[in-house]
Design brief:
Blueprint (H helix, E strand, L loop, with lengths): L7 H4 L2 H4 L8 E4 L5 E5 L1 E5 L4 E12 L2 E11 L4 E11 L5 E10 L5 E9 L5 E10 L3 E10 L13 E11 L4 E11 L2 E12 L8 E2 L3 E5 L3 E5 L2 E6 L2 E10 L5 E9 L3 E15 L5 E18 L4 E10 L4 H4 L18 E12 L2 E12 L11 E13 L5 E12 L4 E2 L5 E2 L1 E12 L2 E3 L3 E17 L7 E15 L2 E4 L3 E14 L39 E13 L3 E12 L19 E9 L3 E9 L5 E12 L2 E10 L8 E11 L4 E10 L4 E12 L3 E10 L9 E10 L12
Antiparallel strand pairs: 1-2, 2-4, 3-4, 4-5, 5-6, 6-7, 7-8, 8-9, 9-10, 10-11, 11-12, 12-13, 14-17, 15-16, 15-45, 16-18, 17-18, 18-19, 19-20, 20-21, 21-22, 22-23, 23-24, 24-25, 25-26, 26-29, 27-28, 29-31, 30-31, 31-32, 32-34, 33-34, 34-35, 35-36, 36-37, 37-38, 38-39, 39-40, 40-41, 41-42, ...
Length: 732
């Protein structure tokens, strides 16, 4: 929009024009050091009481520049007029064009004909005339506004534009309002709006309507979501997202964010008053208030200490799936929950170079069929602290302390068959490890660990709590020898690694509930750990050994290939370990990993587990691609036995193919190969340029969960730059 006050530079012509009237061409600095006037000739019209600069006129005042063919200062009317190819550049980079501009000498009022302006973020406005009043209000007649870049050499229509009979820019409120506006797409009128307003491009954060979301769903029917963004302060905002649907009652979503000097709070929630309904929108049961909240925050207490929280709760197990609410599996604190399980947490963290402490309290809500929230434990508190001492060539010693208290309303039978109501554990441990290079390059790392555990367990049988304690220790050594070969084509490193250790055999005592190691699995990440179990309730006892081979080859142009394969042996089987753990027998399966990076655009990473007959018990392959017209990620996984004892195999694909300069085809799929069913599938088309984004997609869910079965929806999304859109999670 016009900024005619930038013409203030012109008024300063009079301070230097008299002294230069006889110079042609002229380049006369004014008596004020921040004003410069250039012109081919200067004329002092004493009879007409005018001072005139003609021919390539340029007036500079600090970072503001006016260029025109002719500039006239009328002493009688006290007005300044610039004529012919007028161009004004301000300090913010905004540029205004006009055939003619006239302004009074106090710069409060003025007008321009055949006016155009280029604002920040590529926004452009044109008008047949512009009138400035009160120093801050610019009125445009027959205006066209667009947020798209305009190229003078191109005859293409902008992707979108607003054409209005009249528009007003208020520079105090930084708003632009339109009367009788028409939204045009590629020059074609698509929507008439009697009145419309939006922030101008100079405005940073303003309250107002954001881009809507619309579509049709087999569950909700036709739906429309219209967000409204409310900027409460420079560091706080809230977004209201009312959703109206043809099949069910309205739903109100809320997003809240606040940035503090020491941290932030972020939360999203929703609520409605409605019955249950199935995948086809059929209602049943009683009407009730239904809602959800997902949120979190973190705050610095000092340079080394911080605290935070995460909240995840919803009124119904299937609430998020009925209303297609995302975010159930996002990380909102120190701990991540399992799929279809909500976790609320409060935590404190302290960390220095040689010290770490975390304290937390946890609460769970199950969303799966058969989950009983009364049987889920409340953990209050969970504590862990570690202090590291460095003795140089003598090695490093770490001293750890840990504790956890679990409370249930009803006793739960754990997957390993142990009943548990309440339990408390306190642990003190220490580890020593040294690093030496001997002989021709053999890396030797001796180690020793010791640990003491105390448990108080109430299994809910009515016999009361029992005290159980154990003392654990092990010692051993890890050795490796890297072989390095450098050639003109590649740098190659091959490293055999071996680890042997011995510890007490009676490690996993009867009566100790396995609460924290139910999903433990030995793989390439802990193949060479002295105690492969990373948590506390299980301990790997007896003699054990691991052998593996690591290799890496680095080629030119950023190409790198690396991998590891190995196996672990144990003195004897331990019934405390399940088949899922890969430690139930005397020999583990082979575990291997490989990674291939072909520059920054192609990568493939895989992890596998297979037995002596090369039957694969676990496969996980993750790949990414960004070449030619293709961009996306794909993952394939196979788990021969999950915690429930079933097999799980699937593939996840998320890709985009550019089919033209601005057009792309989109595809997403999550397929359960075991059940031969698509859990989620989406196909669509998208258009994106410098000022807009449009997408149209068909989505189908094939999941079954109690009253919800397969569902379908069609979604349309669009964003027009400068007319409302989403922002990131940061504050200015």
């Amino acid at each position: 929009m016009p900024r005619l006050n930038c013409l203030a530079a012109v008024a300063l012509i009079v301070s230097g024009i008299s002294a230069a009237a006889a110079q042609t061409p002229a380049e006369t600095p004014s008596t004020r050091s921040d004003v410069l006037l250039r012109a081919d000739r200067l004329i002092d019209d004493r009879d007409g009481r005018q001072l005139i600069a003609e021919g390539n006129v340029e007036v500079r005042v600090e970072e503001r520049v006016l260029r025109a063919d002719r500039v006239i200062y009328d002493l009688a009317k006290e007005t300044i007029r610039a004529q012919g190819n007028v161009r004004i550049t301000d300090a913010q980079g905004g540029v205004q064009f006009a055939d003619e501009i006239e302004i009074d000498d106090d710069f409060e009022n003025g007008f321009a004909t055949r006016f155009a302006t280029r604002l920040s973020d590529n926004a452009v406005a044109t008008a047949s005339s512009a009138i400035r009043t009160s120093g801050t209000r610019n009125s445009l007649e027959q205006v066209i506004y667009t947020g798209c870049p305009i190229c003078a050499e191109s005859e293409d229509q902008p992707t979108w534009s607003l054409r209005a009979r009249r528009a007003v820019q208020n520079q105090e409120t930084q708003m632009i309002s339109y009367q009788d506006a028409v939204l045009e797409i590629r020059g074609v009128p698509v929507l008439y709006i009697p009145y419309f307003a939006h922030p101008d491009p100079t405005s940073k954060r303003r309250s107002g309507l954001l881009t809507p979301d619309a579509g049709v769903s087999s569950k909700l029917g036709a739906f429309y979501e219209q967000p409204y963004y409310l900027a409460l302060s420079p560091s706080q905002d809230i977004t209201f997202r009312p959703v109206v649907s043809s099949n069910v009652n309205p739903l109100l979503k809320l997003d809240y964010r606040k940035r503090f000097f020491s941290g932030y709070v972020s939360a999203e929630g929703s609520f409605t008053y409605e019955q249950d309904f199935d995948s086809r929108g059929n209602k049943f049961g009683d009407e009730a208030w239904r809602s959800h909240i997902y949120g979190g925050g973190r705050f610095d207490l000092s340079q080394d200490w911080s605290w935070g929280f995460g909240v995840e709760r919803q009124s119904d197990d299937l609430y998020d799936q009925r209303y297609d609410i995302d975010g159930e599996d996002d990380l909102r604190g120190l701990f991540a929950s399992q799929p279809r399980q909500l976790l609320s947490q409060l935590f404190l963290v302290g960390q220095r170079t040689d010290f770490y402490l975390e304290a937390s309290a946890l609460s769970f809500q199950g969303l799966r069929a058969g989950d009983d929230d009364a049987a889920f434990p409340r953990v209050a508190p969970s504590l862990f602290a570690q202090k590291v001492y460095d003795f140089g060539s003598w090695g490093r010693v770490s001293a750890d302390a840990s504790a956890a208290v679990l409370m249930r309303d009803v006793a739960e039978t754990l997957p390993n068959g142990d009943p548990s109501l309440d339990s408390a554990r306190a642990t003190v441990s220490g580890e020593w490890r040294a690093h030496h290079v001997v002989g021709p390059g053999v890396v030797v790392e001796p180690f020793a660990q010791t640990r003491g555990d105390f448990y108080r367990v109430d299994d809910g049988s009515g016999a009361g709590p029992r005290d159980i304690s154990r003392v654990l220790a092990l010692g051993g050594v890890q050795a490796s020898m890297p072989f390095v070969r450098r050639t003109a084509a590649a740098d190659i490193v091959v490293e055999p690694i071996v680890m042997v250790a011995y510890g007490g055999t009676e490690a996993n005592m009867d009566g100790i509930p396995n609460e924290d190691s139910l999903l433990f699995e030995m793989d390439d990440s802990n193949l060479f750990e002295p105690n492969a179990v990373t948590n506390f309730d299980l301990w790997e006892g007896g003699a054990r050994a691991a052998f593996g081979l690591s290799a890496r080859a680095a080629f030119g142009d950023g190409i790198e290939v690396s991998g590891l394969v190995g196996r672990r042996w144990r003195e004897k089987p331990d019934p405390a370990f399940s088949a899922l753990s890969n430690l139930s027998g005397e020999r583990s399966d082979y575990v291997a990993s490989a990674k291939v990076d072909v520059g920054p655009n192609i990568h493939v990473a895989s992890r596998v587990r297979f037995d002596d007959s090369f039957n694969f018990n676990r496969i996980d392959i993750d790949s990414g691609l960004d070449v030619w017209r293709l961009q996306g990620r794909a993952r394939y996984f196979l788990i021969d036995q999950i915690a429930s004892g079933a097999k799980e195999e699937g593939v996840i694909i998320d890709g985009r193919m550019r089919i033209a300069t601005r057009w792309s085809a989109l595809y997403q799929q999550f397929r359960n190969i075991t059940d031969k069913r698509d859990i989620r599938q989406s196909i669509g088309i998208a258009y994106q340029d410098d000022c807009s984004f449009f997408s149209l997609s068909y989505e189908r869910s094939g999941a079954f969960d109690r009253t919800l079965g397969p569902s379908e929806s069609i979604r349309f999304n669009f964003v027009l730059t400068g007319l409302g859109g989403t922002s990131d999670n940061s504050f200015d």
